[in-house]
Amino acid sequence: MSFYEFKTEDAERFASMYPGTKRNGNEIRFQLCPYCHGGKKPDKGTFAINLKTGAFNCRRGSCGAKGNMITLARDFPEFQLSDDVNRHENINNFNGQFRHFANAHKITKSNDRAISFMQSRGISEKVCREYEITTFPKDDQRIVFPFKDESGSLTFIKYRNTDPERIKKGSKEWCEPKCKPILFGMNHCQGDERLVVTEGQIDSLSLTEAGIPNAVSVPTGKNGFTWVPHCWDFVKRFREIVVFGDCENGEITLSVELTKRFKNVKVVRTEDYLGCKDANEILQAHGPEALKKAVENATSAPIHHIKEMADVESLDIESLPAISTGTGVLDELLSGGFHYGDFVILTGRRGEGKSTMASQFVVEALAKDHNCLIYSGEMKDVAVKNWIDRQIVGRQVPYNSEIEECERWYRGRLFIYDDEAIDEEETETLLETIEDAIIQKNVRFVLVDNLMTAMEDTAGSNETLYRQQSNFCGKLAKLARKFDAVILLVCHPRKTTNDSLMNDDVSGTADITNKANIVLTYSRVYVDKQETDPSIRDLAVTKNRLTGKLGSVKMAYSESSKRICWVKVRDIKKQYIMAAPAYQVPTDEEQIPFGDLSGEEKWTEEQ
């Protein structure tokens, strides 16, 4: 593992400085080479950066420039990677800003005052003199800790107040300005077996006092890591790194950051602190053997975001909380319906009823006492309400009394996103609103229909659009998992000549369906591109991450009621609200949901 890890955005950032650059597969190609500018002709397209490795080269024989991102940072001062990279590579003489101490020998001899203070902390005179602990000239209340590099050159100086009254008025510790930050004790380290890193200098000296070799401490406390680039090569030579930070609220300081930056890191166990805060307290309270035991018992740093498989609760699919789809055979395919945490994609051709199917899922969720939120990118809120009310009542034109009953039924349980125009910035607002609704309104079913259309109007290039769509779907999926909600996203398919729709037909990139737990397609039924029955739809499960079970269900659609049901169902006159008075019930076939069922064969199609 090298200090600098290549990032695609670094190459893209360099490319943005030059006009005419284009992405071609795994490369960024430049119109003209930044080094030779194409020569006298000038030759175009000879320079490219590999987007997997960051390596570049110019194919012009008289130029032949090649290297990597660090080479570009050295050769083009206007392009920089980061201060840490500048420190490690000394790009543009970055480290030339630091001070040099020509007369270091005059201030690095231990004296009685420094030795007396350190002895009060359990550190012997021998160790004090070995590490040249002293006091500031003309101020013996200020302890001086000299930091010397591997060659023995004084590089950094840290001070510590020993007067309690001064500490109350000012800082307890501070550093000499404009010094290169390094690890205290580097010049005393030998071999390459184990390095022990502490937060404070007195802590690393405590380890030395206990006979533990190669103990060092950081220069600027638990939150300062500017030393890493300067000490990277030094630390990397050790086969094992033990973090002996301060124990604060059950956490060991330094451990998280050092685990991210270095391999083979171990951390002292909290129980081996024996109720103490740091290594020096352990030394004074329990002696050298307790420190040795703590270092030997250090365990590999926990890897964040993983846990023992044996600790994972066994999955009982039958007991998982789910929201019924309202269609028994579909629930069976999905092992109970939409499960909490599911991110569901529903796609279908324009005009074939996918939004109707989606809104019916909302009605079914309400019927099972799940609060719902709707975002509609294609209809105004009044149109959405009208559609929902018609599906609840089951007729073309609900009576006023039925509309009032609908409102009483879903008041406090059904919400709609109050905005029509969505741009890239507004997608974040929508995500925040969904999260707030889940938390504050106990929303468990969210319908997003159809944000992708709005994105197409604002994204610009296809590449930008696909990136936005993929990112948005990823965030929806995370919200669903985080809050145990079901989020259903309606998407258009791309143009296809296939009779049936598949996952790859969803408009955008494969990332969209990759992020979904369930993918549903809803479309008219075609055979050899000829529609079999204008009232029949095919609702297919084309992805089912929980069980892998796939299949399709033939559904019947009624234009008058806007309802959809399985063709084999018998009880299609479902009531979601109190029925209207008898004298208001229509008798004509057109107004009865799904028409006249006296001839059941009309709706009984093969699944």
Radius of gyration equals 35 Å
What's the CATH topology name of the largest domain? Rossmann fold
CATH superfamily of the largest domain: P-loop containing nucleotide triphosphate hydrolases
Q: Determine the fraction of residues in helical runs and give it as a percent range.
A: 25-40%
The SS-based structural class is alpha/beta
Kindly report the oligomeric state of this protein.
single chain
Give the overall shape.
elongated
Alpha-carbon distance between the two ends: 57 Å
Strand content: 15-25%
> How many domains is the backbone divided into?
3
CATH architecture term of the largest domain: 3-Layer(aba) Sandwich
Work out the number of β strands.
29
Give a concise summary.
The longest helix has 22 residues, at 462-483. Helices cover 29% and strands 20% of the residues.
Protein architecture, described:
- It is a single chain.
- With 607 residues, the protein is an alpha/beta fold.
- The chain folds into three domains: 8-82, Zinc finger, CHC2-typedomain (DNA Primase, Chain A, Alpha-Beta Complex); 104-300, Dna Topoisomerase Vi A Subunit, Chain: A, domain 2 (3-Layer(aba) Sandwich), CATH 3.40.1360; 336-602, 3-Layer(aba) Sandwich (Rossmann fold), CATH 3.40.50.300.
- 29% of the residues lie in helices and 20% in strands.
- It has 19 helices and 29 strands.
- A nine-stranded mixed beta sheet has the order 21-20-22-23-19-24-27-28-29, sandwiched between helices.
- A hairpin with a 5-residue loop joins strand 3 (47-50) and strand 4.
- It is elongated, with a radius of gyration of 35 Å.
- Residues 580-607 have low confidence and may be disordered.
